[in-house]
Request: fold
Amino acid sequence: MTQQVSDEDFEQIHAAVREFIRTRVVPREREIADTDAIPEDIRQAAKDIGLFGYAIPQEWGGLGLNLTQDVELAMEFGYTALALRSMFGTNNGIAGQVLVNFGTDEQKAQWLEKIASGEVVASFALTEPGAGSNPAGLRTKARQDHDGAGAGSAASGPNGAGAGSAASGLNGDWVIDGAKCFITNAALSNLLVTFARTRPADENGPGIAAFLVPTDTPGVTVAPHDEKMGQQGAWTSDVHFDGVRVPASALVAGDEDAGYKAAMTSLARGRVHIAALAVGSAQRALDESLRHAAVTTQGGTPIGDFQLVQAHLADMQTGIMAGRALVRDAAVKYVSGEDRRIAPSVAKLFCTEMAGDVADKAVQVHGGSGYMREMTVERIYRDVRLLRLYEGTSEIQRLIIGGGLVRAEKKKQGQ
Reply:
């Protein structure tokens, strides 16, 4: 993706986002956690400054930031309650990028401007019970119905802009059946970017398609949002598809084999973003620990003067600096096209594991008080645990990295 925003303009965007987070969101983190929701005025402010579409190209109403700029904002988002980023993360990331990179011109025209403005919240409906980090295990099925009723009126989206506005009529509708789990923003979404198997994988392709399914389509049921260990305010839900009928125009790219590549491409980009988010969370944990160590005394001596506490702080700083450098390097490689597979997985693996370690050390530096709910590091400790699970677990990242390295070496050796 070419750079649509100059470095000078991005500096202003970055400064505005940083100020918004530090002055508007950080003081209300406890409110977000206690209510398990983002306050409406914060949601509206995020829309007003373009956060629902910062990674959507400018021609579709977004700010047009590329991944090297995205990760700088992500490190700011990670500095506060991760629910803030989750509120608009799927619009800019895994769901929105499917449309940006694989949508037809008609699909882009129908949805992207509304996604960029925040009028539409898009969700990425991939994960299933029994098929989490590996899309090849999908059980949700889509079949083409050449004899059924048209889907034009049934697939209407917000403000009457339905997926069926360019429907193929009686002969091209798709019918989707299956279930998804842990779908971020599903309870708030207007559009589900839904992945389903159209046939078993064969020599012609993986047989996995992506469909644009308005949430109000008959047969779609979104369960109440989950209760999680952390990240209160970031809602995930189960979604069920029971004979959900969408028109042929809802098939992303107009190709029933495009879904697998669309999912993998969006996830790889998202992994660099999540790595940056982890760096931001780790930085906040360190900053909280430094403040605590400087003013808290033990036997009249600030605990920051104790060498074992300093050792924890040193390890935290080392991990954060390494993670920040790794994220920036992976983003550059992704944007240039040099590496869109191994580097994203390396960044996500290292940075999310690092954030967990830093959060653990932060609680240790705080001592007993670090285990108390009113302490910021207690929330961070719970929040960052999820980073090692979604958009591909640490175990999956290790398989991607290791397998990719071996395949590259075999190719080098002519095998």
Summary: The radius of gyration is 22 Å. The beta strands are 122-125, 141-145, 173-184, 191-197, 208-214, 220-222, 236-246, 297-298, 301-302. The longest strand covers residues 173-184. DSSP finds twelve helices and nine strands in the chain.
